[in-house]
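Structure first, sequence second, as always.
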């Protein structure tokens, strides 16, 4: 088994990374009432870069940061920046669980994109499990409801974020054949730093937020302010989560196929609902619990199918060639 063919370890890493993402989302929502998104991204990335360099040293030192494909890494960084921008603009005004549920069209996008862009084969059992997980997301969104508390265009923001994120992770799989996970994480953090500094230069004084009433736009455009003493621990927590997320997600998609890894990102959904209930008194409905059960069940089924596929079975072959 090669360094890029470790599905079990990849699944464990994606679960750890998704846990860090859920904490990161919680902390950003906590801070969203007083700080602009680009300020949080700058502080988070600066601190996260320190943690990430620790992974770089463990995987071979600064020499692994050299790359022959800088433009592809820049494209990957740009995709994740746009994914963050659109998702957190929604999180600022939507329940955390609802925004996360909408974002979870991403695993379906990843699975489907891995076929034409990576040439991966997805068997009917795993594809069916992903479709069932998507059905759970649809149930939680209650499309049959006549009224929505959130504007339709805001509801689309997490879906747009999911598409950017899916493209980024498919590109991660391609770049991961020759680039260490810690190096890719450094490139991501560097991209966040550059973009957030650009936001500060252009809009850091808050002049574009004057007269704006939409809460999502205010979150993106309000001026930078010096953090309150009690908020520094939250910013440090964001940086720590950024380091964990950057490494774990890059390593997971480097070690296993996108179609295998993607469904396990669904575990972020019950995590988001838990944080929403604990911190913001957001109480899931019956439809939300039903959808969550389908999503988690689908992810566990994919894991069991992957374990069965990797188990040696001489003389026995699936009708489809890949179960």
């Amino acid at each position: 088994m090669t360094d890029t063919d470790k599905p079990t370890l990849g699944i464990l890493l994606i679960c750890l990374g998704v846990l860090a993402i859920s904490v990161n989302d919680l902390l950003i929502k906590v801070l969203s009432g007083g700080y602009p998104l680009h300020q949080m991204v700058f502080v988070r990335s600066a601190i996260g870069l320190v943690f990430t360099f620790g992974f770089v040293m463990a995987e071979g030192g600064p020499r692994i940061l050299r790359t022959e494909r800088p433009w592809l890494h820049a494209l990957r960084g740009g995709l994740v920046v746009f994914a963050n921008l659109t998702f957190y603009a929604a999180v600022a005004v939507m329940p955390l669980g609802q925004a996360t549920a909408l974002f979870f069209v991403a695993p379906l996008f990843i699975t489907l994109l891995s076929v034409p862009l990576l040439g991966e084969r997805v068997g009917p059992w795993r594809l069916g499990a992903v479709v069932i997980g998507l059905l759970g997301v649809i149930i939680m969104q209650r499309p049959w409801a006549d009224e929505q508390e959130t504007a339709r265009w805001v509801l689309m923001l997490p879906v747009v974020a999911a598409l950017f994120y899916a493209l980024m992770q498919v590109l991660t799989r391609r770049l991961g054949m020759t680039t260490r996970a810690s190096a890719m994480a450094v490139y991501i953090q560097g991209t966040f730093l550059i973009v957030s500094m650009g936001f500060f230069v252009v809009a850091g004084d808050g002049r574009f937020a004057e007269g704006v009433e939409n809460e999502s736009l205010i979150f993106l455009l309000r001026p930078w302010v010096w953090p309150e003493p009690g908020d520094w621990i939250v910013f440090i927590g964001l940086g720590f989560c950024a380091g964990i997320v950057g490494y774990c997600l890059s390593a997971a998609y480097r070690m296993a196929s996108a179609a295998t890894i993607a469904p396990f990102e669904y575990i972020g959904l019950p995590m988001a609902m838990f944080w929403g209930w604990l911190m913001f008194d957001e109480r899931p409905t019956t439809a939300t619990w039903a959808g969550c059960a389908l999503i988690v069940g689908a992810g566990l089924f994919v894991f069991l199918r992957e374990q069965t596929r990797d188990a040696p079975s001489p003389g026995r072959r699936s009708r489809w060639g890949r179960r």
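Margin note: The longest helix spans residues 7-31.
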